[in-house]
Amino acid sequence: MEPKDDNISAMCKPSVGEAGRTGDWRDATPVIDQTKCIAAVKNRPACYLCWLYCPEGVVEAGVPVKINLEYCKGCGVCAEECPSKAITMVMHEENGK
Ligand code: SF4
Ligand code: SF4
Description:
- It is a single chain.
- The model has no long low-confidence stretch (mean pLDDT about 85).
- This protein has helices at about 40, 50-55, 75-80, 90-95; strands at about 30, 60, 65, 85-90.
- The chain has a single domain (about 30-95), classed as Alpha-Beta Plaits.
- The radius of gyration is 16 Å and the shape is globular.
- A two-stranded antiparallel ribbon has the order 1-4. A two-stranded antiparallel sheet has the order 2-3.
- By secondary structure, it is an alpha+beta fold.
- The protein has 4 helices and 4 strands.
- The structure holds iron/sulfur cluster (2 copies).
């Protein structure tokens, strides 16, 4: 038997939309104010804490940052973690969806 390698551990592989397509049941939508988003303001890759913390892997870390709403579950983690408060969670009653 080969000796155990302590550097190897079990990890889950992130993939887009673990919760499946959420467009029908999500009750809140994250809306990014690009005038506050650090990446957009600096016009270069920056920050991306929303991308890092999104449990569904649906944030595109680009300039500008985009969110794939087909698979976003509306949890609000991105809004909580955004250091510049650029993301607002809009309840569907408020935006008519
Ligand atoms: S609300 Fe934000 S953190 Fe939650 S799934 Fe949607 S993009 Fe990801
Ligand atoms: S966490 Fe906020 S400031 Fe940072 S990239 Fe995402 S939206 Fe922009």
